[in-house]
Amino acid sequence: MIKQFNQALSQKEKSLKLLYGLINERGPISKSDLIAETGLTQTTCSRLIDELINHALIIESGFGESSGGRKPYLYEIKSDIYHLIGIDISRRYTKILLMDLNLKVKAEARLKMNQTSTPDVIIDFIVDEVNEMLTNHQLQTKDILGIGIGAIGPLDREKGIILNPVHFPSPGWVNVPINDMLSERLEMKVLIDYGVNTALLAEYQNEFIKTHRNIVYVIKGVGSRTGIIMDGRLVHGSDKLGMYGQGHMIVDIHGRKCICGGYGCVQAYSSISAIKNDVINSLKQGKNSILADRFVDFEEIQFEDICQAVNENDSLCCEVIKEAGYYTGIGLSNVINVLHPDLIILSGPTYTDMDLYYDVVTETAFKRSKVIYPDHDINFSRGNLGENATAIGAGGMLLSSYLE
Ligand SMILES: [Zn+2]
C-alpha cells in the first residue's frame, strides 16, 4: 500500500497517508497525539488506525503515560513489510545498506574506491551486492521500496545524473545517469541527493530533531562538503553547484596556493592531501617523527599512518594536525557568524579518526565565534551514525518520497 501513496489518492487515502507519515515520524505515538496533530475527529482517527492495522502497515506497540484514566495504546509502523536500499558513493568508498522501514541496517557491503572504480565497475558491484542481499534475506524485488543514493556532487538530482566530480580516483565519472542505470538493472525506483544532505537528514532524524533547528553538517575527507538545515528544513540551494563548498572559504588572503587556483583556502591547509604533504615535507627536512623510523620511502605514507602517529602522540604529526585544525576552526567560525547554527556536526575521517583534530577545530571555532556573539549557544557533535549516515539518510529520503 505504501507504493500506492505516490499515485492519485481519494480523500480517505490522503488521510491514511498523512496518518501513516506521522506515525513513521513520531511513533510510538498515541491516538490522542495523532488527533491533536491532524485535527481528525476521534471516530475518523480510530477508523483510519484500524484500517492501517488491517493493511499491516502499523502495529500496537505497548502503552503510553496515562493522563488519569487507562493507559493509551501507542502505535508505530510495521518495519518489515518493505525494505529499502541506501547507497553512499564518495571518493573513498561505495557503501550499500539493506534496511527495514525503521532504517535499521540488516546487511551492508563496502568497496574501497581506487583507479579501477569506473562507473561500470561500481554499477556491477551494486547490482551484485543488492541481489545477494535479497537472496540472503529471502526478499524479492517487490519487497523493496526502492534505492536512495547519497553521492558526491555535482549532481543533476532531478535527472539522476552524477555530473563531473573533481578528484575522483578513477576515470569515467562524467555525466553518469546512475538512476537510470540502476533502475534498469534492478527494476526499482531510484532517487539521488548530495551525500552530505542525506547524512545530515539521517543524523537529524536519528538524534537531533527534538533539540536543534539550525544545523550545519560538514563531511571532511578528500574535499569538504557542507549541508545545512535551517528552521528544521534542509536547504537545497542551487542544484548542480555541489563542486566545492566550505573547503574553499578563504582564511588567509596571502596564504597557500589552493587546487582551485586561489590562495589561502581552508582546503589548502587541511585536506587529506595537504596534511599528507605537510608531514612528508617535514620528514624530508629531517624532522623527528616515529614515521621516520617506519618508512624508508616517505611518499608511501598514507593518511591512516598519520592518524595512528597522532594517536600515539607523535610530535611532528600532532603539530601538523594542530595547524590544519586551527585553519579549519577559523573557517568554521566564519560559517557560524553567518548562519548562527545551534549545532555543528563534523564527520569524515579527519574528525572521527583523530580526537586532536576535532578538539582543535571545535575549540578554535568556539572561541572565535564567542568573541563576536558571546551569548550564542553553539554545540558541536561528531554525530552518532558514523560512516553509515549518508547511506541511512539516502534510504530515509526514499521512504519520505512516498509520504510527502
Ligand atoms: Zn580553493
Summarize the structure.
The protein is of the alpha/beta class.
Which short descriptors sum up this protein?
single chain, 404 residues, alpha/beta, Arc Repressor Mutant, subunit A, Nucleotidyltransferase, domain 5, 3 domains, 5-stranded mixed beta sheet, 15 strands, 43% helix, 19% strand, binds zinc ion
Q: What is the element layout, followed by pairings?
A:
Layout: H1 11-26, E1 29-30, H2 31-38, H3 42-54, E2 58-63, E3 73-77, E4 83-89, E5 93-100, E6 105-112, H4 119-136, E7 144-151, E8 155-156, E9 161-162, H5 178-186, E10 190-194, H6 195-208, E11 215-220, E12 224-230, E13 233-234, H7 266-270, H8 272-284, H9 290-294, H10 303-311, H11 315-339, E14 343-347, H12 349-352, H13 355-372, E15 379-381, H14 389-403
Parallel strand pairs: 4-7, 7-10, 11-14, 14-15
Antiparallel strand pairs: 1-3, 2-3, 4-5, 5-6, 8-9, 11-12, 12-13
This protein binds zinc ion.
Zinc ion (ZN) binds next to loops.
